Amino acid sequence: MVQTLNGPRLAPKSGKARQLVVILHGYGANGDDLIEIGRQWQPLFPDAAFIAPHAHEPCAQAPGMRQWYNLTDRNPHERWAGAAAARSVVDAFIDSELEQLGLDDSQLALAGFSQGAMMALHIGLRRRSAPAAILGYSGMLVGPEYLSEATARDTTGAPPPVLLIHGSHDEVVPPQSLFTSANQLAEANIPCQWHLSIGLGHGIDHEGIRQGACFLAKSMGMPTPNLARR
């Protein structure tokens, strides 16, 4: 049976989509949890359509919520198998969304939080063509030993731009995951930018939103947005 996804959407303010930003939520949440990021970015990107799909699996640990894959004991093999299984579902969803909007991967940005960040990295690095940007909050690279599969490239042969953002006091996904993932990507010749939010736990702060907006704008060839620091 073909699994389909849906979730809260924000139409482009200009009325015509020239970019698509897909935001993937974390474990035990749903798309409603992260569409607020899209609302904060929407005034800065009037030509962007935003969607935060609900994951295809119910989450046993959080009744009524969703998961991209199970996390019973959080071991690396389980994460890899889960991400690999979910990839085809999310890829098919992205393909359908791009086709409906008349866009291609060069106009696609993938963002995610926690398990959603792991999925954004896993999928974005393996697309047929490189997305314009991959933005991961409080996540980590799943299956670094399989990075030979990360063959997504743009028309110039470059891998997708990656920005990883993490809280220094993250109690769920250790902040060291940021540096480990960045180093693993570098070893695979995939450049990675990163930002550490000092004092932040497992979440996204205003500076992370600002850094993400600037990264998306640069990656999609748009002017740097005016989003003041706090």
Task: Describe the protein in words.
There is one protein chain. The chain has a single domain (9-219), classed as Rossmann fold (3-Layer(aba) Sandwich). The chain is built from 5 helices and 9 strands, in the order E-E-H-E-E-E-H-E-H-E-E-H-E-H. The chain has helices spanning 35-41, 76-101, 115-124, 176-187, 206-219, and strands at 9-10, 19-24, 48-51, 57-58, 66-67, 108-113, 133-137, 162-167, 193-197. The strands form 2 sheets. The protein has a 7-stranded mixed sheet, sandwiched between helices. It has a two-stranded antiparallel ribbon with strand order 4-5. Helix 2 crosses helix 3. The chain is globular, with a radius of gyration of 16 Å. The mean pLDDT is 93.
CATH architecture heading: 3-Layer(aba) Sandwich
Poorly predicted residue ranges: none
Number of DSSP helical runs: 5
- The residue-averaged pLDDT reads 93
Overall strand count? 9
Shape: globular
- Determine and state the CATH class: Alpha Beta
SS class: alpha/beta
Strand order of the largest sheet: 1-3-2-6-7-8-9
CATH H-level superfamily: Alpha/Beta hydrolase fold, catalytic domain
Helix content: 25-40%
Share of residues in strands: 15-25%
Major beta-sheet overview: 7 strands, mixed
Ends apart, CA distance between termini: 48 Å
The SSE order reads EEHEEEHEHEEHEH
Instruction: Output the CATH topology.
Output: Rossmann fold
How many structural units, i.e. domains?
1
Radius of gyration: 16 Å
